[in-house]
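agent> Task received from the user: take the single chain below, predict its 3D structure, and emit structure tokens. No templates, no multimer pairing.
agent> Plan: (1) validate residues, (2) run structure prediction, (3) serialize to tokens, (4) report one or two observations.
agent> Step 1 OK, no nonstandard residues flagged.
tool_call: predict_structure(input=
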Amino acid sequence: MDDAGKLLIGKGEQQQFLYLPLANRHGLVAGATGTGKTITLQVLAEGFSRAGVPVFCADVKGDLSGIAEAGAANPKLAQRAAELGATDYANTAAPVIFWDLFGAQGHPIRAIGTGGRQVRTAPEYGHIYDHFAVVYEYDNGVFCTAMCRQQNGTDKKVANEFTGTKGSALVLPNYVINGPNAWKYEGEPNDMYVQEHTDLIASIRAGKPLNELKQVAESSLTAVMGRMSAYSGKTITWEQAMNSPESLMPETLTWGPMPVPAVPQPGQDTM
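)
tool_result: status=success, residues=271
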């Protein structure tokens, strides 16, 4: 759809082009809701990509992320392409790499969970659940399912599994990739609890402080967020968890019996 040196960005009575030699100028795409601002930006990004020009988009809401996947065949789109004179129209995906501000997919934006007490119901276990299942949603459309249980006599499994469009990967207890680019780690097993101390000691000796407090805090709040959702039966957002006034500390710290809260009842207890 792009002639050499210019990008086709639309058509009214005649085709409108953006000429690459002039594309280093400032620009503004403005209009009311539904007038095509997002589509215009997508068209520009795709056009620059086809012309070999790298494109960086600070896309806070993910509005432009749809160019990463090929669109589905649609008679209206085919008709519109014909009206524009686009003879080479095809549903294709643009080469896209998603970056996040935290460098590791950031934190989840919301969680919905469930859980309960089936085995650990005696008074010594307090009011906590003995099993959870939580689905976390991340800002880039990725979902993560986390499940756990503390029930004697059940099968034990501690693992991290990843599934993508072209394969899957297992991290813990082994390191395996399944799919077209299959791979398996053949080296000596690495104990993560030993490795974290190895990294800490190495950072001290090298005089390079290793500060992972932010990752630890966000990891902990992620777990708290899942627990809040399971206990309340409600979807909990990151902002709700961050701003929650909930405190699990006793009002006073004294010797003697400690009051135990009631077992949470989803749909009745609020967070």
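agent> Step 4: summary for the user.
The chain has two domains: 6-83, 110-242.
agent> Done.
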